[in-house]
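Demo today. Your pick:
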Amino acid sequence: MQRTFAIIKPDAVAAGQTGEILAHIQKAGFKIGGMKMKRLSQLEAEGFYAVHKERPFYGSLVKFMTEGPVVVLVLEAEDAIRKWRDTMGATNPANAAEGTIRKKFATSIERNCVHGSDAPETAAVEIPFFFSSSELL
């Protein structure tokens, strides 16, 4: 069993898509090991996305991620990181496969409704950024 980190982003929460995305997650065979809704502060968003600080989209990403509530999750499954990335679909929804979350719900490459860890090392940093061990099942 492997754990990965996921976020249902502000665009999807604002559009009322949280329930449908959670249903999609469960239908894909994930166990939810942790979940909470929160609004990211400027400092949290800057810290979480610090890896992108030198990229031109960093400022707009931080602004987007603080514009409304998000749902942060820890997902568990065999090969969870790869499985979640496949379930999300390509970052650009125009390139996402049919049946993926981004194909169904995302509106652009920047407002792409969900986030997922891209490697075990990333998940090992992202999960404790939002969850203490006592919050995980």
